[in-house]
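Response to reviewer comment R2.3. The reviewers asked that we include at least one raw input/output pair. We reproduce the pair for subtilisin here without editing.
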Amino acid sequence: MQTEMQSGNPRDNVPLDVTRLEHLKTFILEPAAGSTPEQLDDIRNFLKAKGARVENDDIATLSFIDEATRTVVTAGSHKADRSTSDDSTSKSKDATGGASGGEESTDAVDAVPTAAPEQWYMDALRIPETWDRLRSLKNRPVKVCVVDTGIDYRNEALKDAFDDLPAANGGSTVHGGNAWRERKYGHNFVDDNTNPLDLHGHGTAVANIIAGKPTRAGGMPGINPHARLIACKAFDNNLKARLSNILSCIDYCIERGAHIQNHGWNISSNSDALVNAFRVADEKGVLMVVSTGIVTPEGRPQALLRPMDTVPASFISLYRNLLTVAGMQLVPREKMQRRVSRCERTRGGQKACLPKLLGLYEIYDKTRYGVNCSHLVAPAKNIFSTGLNNATVSMEGVSLAVGIMSGVSSLLLSAVVNGRYLRPKFIPMLLEVNNKFMVSAKGKVQWEGYTDCYKALKTVLDCKGEWAKISNVIKVRNHAIWERMRQDTPHKRPTAAQ
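Raw output as returned:
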């Protein structure tokens, strides 16, 4: 390509670094430093004349409030006397509900993790109940590719959570380099090497939310102890990433066979290359969990009235493999006290004014939202996890809500029922009908609430893992939901603008 371009270019000898993304069928062209605007225009015009669609690189930002991060306690704050082991495996049957044939599933686990008291989001989504129910089932490992600042693979709670490439690959991938390290951990597209070590801490905290396995040395449990992590470093320590590096990560995650890709970032302009990347992921049945974004630290929750306001969450109407996530939080103590007092004055009794009856949760005060870009809400504030140096940290941002939903999705995908398991692309439909209504989410996100993980698992179990039966349950529940909405709002459904 480079030779052809130079031979057809009036301004010859423009050095180009050309990278081909195999699965996305996309080329990334990087001219040498010092190239003139005229030379870049010549390259662009040449490619357009050949019928190619050409766009400039863009910058993405993680949906995270970096200033709110604080180290709470050092390593060992939450010591686990019970941990999960997935060393013993047995073959799972190839089933119509599976992602692919011949995958291994782990035997039923004798012990379950123990959530730390600070992990309020575990109880909110009924994760401990789901763990207890999964004890009696076989579980398969689910691959989650985290596109972020990398992952600290030296972290005590994560060192055994990484995916390995099959031995048949001989430790080599299309990216070459240090084969063992890449096979074990992932890839670094920021520095273009095979060491995805996290130097910021965000990616490590997200990875721990998804798949942390606390040891006696400390750490907090992740949502899915059966998840197998793949690290793809696209973001630098300033939480910024070139879109070209994100595209490289999407291609790499597909190459590694990830069932789920975790994307807790946004860009503010559309991209044909990114639309194509999500289309390819959809065709390959990969679940893409994405963020609606955040407002500035000084801002307030913001409705996104135009689909192009946040990408890739705006792809919500294009692909069924997309799960778009806005943020929620615990109602602040002072605000809850005012609610209870007002309730007691108007209703004249304490039983009807318990906090759990008034609603413990509300829209996160820094989230962006809109029925045209978000399916549901998930916990995003005062999220405790394990960060760098095995320290416990408290963080906030919609990117953490994305990590939580990647963990929930992988937990549901891990269940093997009668030799069957769900395909990743069916997760959004399953979650839609197993959602808890939240008053402040009404008219702001499509499903008007947050996930009930245990209820979603129960739906799978009640149908014995057969997707045809699950699909029928979903249709029946959807009809009931829409009928109830029609009665509540006879003219039209509320929108974010309202």
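Residues 74-102, 104-110, 167-178, 489-498 have pLDDT under 50 and may be disordered. DSSP finds 14 helices and 24 strands in the chain. Further pairs are available on request from the corresponding author.
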